[in-house]
Amino acid sequence: MSGEIVRGMTRGAAWMVLFKAIDRPLGLISTLILARLLLPSDFGLVAMAMSVIAVIEMATSFSFEAALIQKQQPRREHYDTAWTLNVSVAFLCAAGTAALAPVAADYYAEPRLTEVMLVLAAGWLAWGFENVGVVDFRRQLNFRREFWFLASKRLTGFAVTIVAALLLRSYWALVVGMVTGRVAGVLISYAMHPFRPRFCLTASRELFSFSGWMLATNLLGAAVSRLPHFVLGRVYGAQILGAYTVGAEFAQIAHTELAAPVNRALFPGFSRLADRLQEFRRACVGATAVMVLIVVPASVGIAAVAEPLVRVVLGERWGAAVPVIQVLAVSSALSAIMSNNASAFLAIGRPNLITAILSIRFVVMVPMLYFAAKSTDFIAIAYAEMVSIVVSLLLSYPMLLRLLQLSAVDYAAAIWRPLGASVLMGIAVYTAIAEIGSDGSARSALIQLGAAVPLGIAVYLLVVWILWAISGRPDSAEALVAKRAWVALRAVAERGR
Q1: Cα→Cα distances 405→276, 411, 483, Å
Q2: At the N or C end, where does the chain have fewer CB atoms within 10 A?
């Protein structure tokens, strides 16, 4: 049974990474088109609205779906209650957003925010009616269906956003795309799953016993993720906030496109293994090792090539995004590792540990943001984010190791090789870009990327292989990934014959 669960997690992770492999190019294409059609201030205006909305959303996000996944045998009333509560929360959040619209407009001295937030509130209300039955795709590790559900929503929002940008040439294109994605999700959810929810509150107490901690966690998560945006918007205005927002999106590619989808598949699988310590420990450490092997070098590489990457992809107007990418890419790698720990805490029914870690991160971040706001350089905000993530990561490990009954030495043995190789790769890439030099043109930036990216890949793979060989060729994440890659290459070669 455990073997089937692990295989289901592996297939699920593959489906979710495949979704991101499609979603990310769509996102990049969307960003490229929108960056050329819209101004940084357009992005900044929407980011101001989302700073307020995200806080409301997270502050009222009980994650009832997570409670259904963690529960071993949920009944009909659990699903109905979760749906009813989602509808109720969406109504309250939409009303709160509408009420706060003029307040946010006054705070940011941006009158256009009022209309933007009212439209976004309407889309939010519609989202509350999404069919809760689709949570079964994850509960049953049926990530093929989850893939098609997510992809359908994404494609719809992408198409509408691009058409709207071409027609409107304003921030309304971003707003229309967001609202359309939410409405499309509701319609698609009922088309893909036969479950038809009814209004019911009989299982409220049961769900709240788990989701109460999720509410606290999401509230803190909203605070630590959005506080920097509040400070930036208030102190530096829409222009800098727009550059910071887009830079952060590029910096977090490895996390959002690899770590997040993998964790979406890991949590249901971990939940099924939670009562079998040895198997759970093996799955948790192995998943983290694979995450470090792939996500950390990708993040370090993005940080190293940030300057030519921005010139080629976004253009000269977005130069302020370069230091944001360099700092937050490292933070993103640390967040990816920490998210794996969070999935383990949720699976064993200990969301309170995540709440405790985020509480300390919040306490660390607030004074740092206060002093960063007084700095003359906005990048101090990014450093404040990074330090708070480092602190929370260091705090999460003793908790995890105690729950897994695992020594720090054994845990470090699984991840030290890719960590060391990533550092050496980053140094090599950064040095190569500096040696090649640049005249400030997109052409020279393209030459830098063309040389640095293959060099980084070669250095990383070589160093990882050398360290693995020196370690005695253990049966580790490196061996697993290499074996899977070899099997995939052979399969492709055989199809080509």
Answers
A1: 12, 11, 29
A2: C
In the Cβ-directed half-sphere of 130, how many Cα atoms lie within 13 Å? 24
Write out the two tokens for 276. Answer: 């079998």
Single out the residue of 64, 35, 23, 47 nearest to residue 318, CA to CA: 35
Condensed to tens digits (0 to 9), the pLDDT of residues 106-130 reads 888 888 888 888 888 888 888 889 9
How far apart CA 215 and CA 18 sit, in angstroms, is: 30
CB 289 within 8 Å of CB 415: yes
Residue 159 has pLDDT above 80, yes or no: yes
Rounded average pLDDT over 230-255: 83
- Contact at 8 Å (CB) between 162 and 33? yes
Determine if the pTM surpasses 0.90.
no
Structure tokens at 389: 């993530």
* Helix (H/G/I), strand (E/B), else coil: 348: coil
407 DSSP 8-state letter: -
Please give the DSSP secondary-structure letter assigned to residue 182.
H
CB 48 within 8 A of CB 241: yes
Cα 336 → chain centroid: 8
Angle value at C-alpha 129, between 164 and 141, nearest 5 degrees: 95
Tell me which long-range contacts 143-147 makes (C-beta under 8 A, separation of at least 24): 143/11, 143/12, 143/15, 143/16, 143/265, 144/15, 145/192, 146/12, 146/15, 146/16, 146/19, 146/264, 147/15, 147/16, 147/18, 147/19
Amino acid identity at 182: R
Q: Which two tokens stand for residue 459?
A: 């250095």
Among 424, 423, 428, 266, which residue's Cα sits nearest to residue 336?
Answer: 266
C-beta of residue 400 within 8 angstroms of C-beta of residue 344: yes
CB 102 within 8 A of CB 34: no
